[in-house]
Amino acid sequence: MSRKTLILGLETSCDDTSAAVVLNGRTVLSNVVSSQDSFHLRFGGVVPEIASRHHLEIINPVIDEALSKAGVAFRDLDGIAVSYGPGLVGSLLVGVSVAKALAFSLELPLAAVNHLEGHIYANFLTGATISFPLLCLVVSGGHTSLLYMEGHGQIEILGRTRDDAAGEVFDKVARALGLGFPGGPVIDKLAQQGEAAAFSFPRALMGEEGKLDFSFSGVKTAVLNCIRRETEKGGQVRTADLAAAFQEAVVEVLVEKSLMAARQRGMTRQFLLAGGVAANGELRRKLRQKLESVNMELIHPPVELCTDNGAMIAAAGYYYLRQGRRASWDLNAVPNLELEGA
What pTM value is reported for the model? Predict the structure, then answer.
């Protein structure tokens, strides 16, 4: 690959349509994201059929805008990268089909990027100097995983959720409280006005020393039951207090498991935070505080790169292609794709 390598990244794994141009896996020249939140708001969650149809309508204009903002043309590109899983199969197919068509017609190499690995590489777009080995917490609407990385493409899964992901329970609790969709940002903001000590919610698997898996279905059920009891009493649900107590329960588990992983791995120097829930202010604050106490540096993307975006896919695609990880023309969407370990 040339010294100046331009990668076009496409991301359509769920309900955001995004295209981005990234230089050498580190510099974002453009990152266009078309959100579908307004289309799914009244349903309280993403409707797969609506999501895939909207991707079809908007993906070409999004690509055109990404190229225009970057000041480049198709002929200037050195590769195409696309998220091919995990995600919603209909949504993924839109991005995969467009990426294959572009790569074939432009005679460019194609990188098939694991969506979760893409989230990790959003950290490489922060300007931080990142060195291996490192630990990473990927926490989003569909996934919660603790990872250890020896190098590019060398990933060891230390722990993952056994049921609901952290972001998923944020959305479900927000819906139960009538706060709208997506739930993470609104709960994060509302919790700042509440008193976390007003309610006590469970922290699952915290007693299993050395175990790095997560479980959030219990705290979700406890919060939903609490809302029901408060409603049955005929009084007003203390929304801010409940949001604060719920968020504290989830954040405490994420932080403590992260510190447990650091101890098991001999305290590597850097810790990466990635995924949509990485935008949560309380999680960032408490995780940074705990990591600094053991001389570890926390690195996380800016808010706009925490949620799904093409820039992270382009960044990961750059390193994929450097390693010769080139996709074939029979590439397909894989909705239940797992991270590949070392």
Answer: 0.93
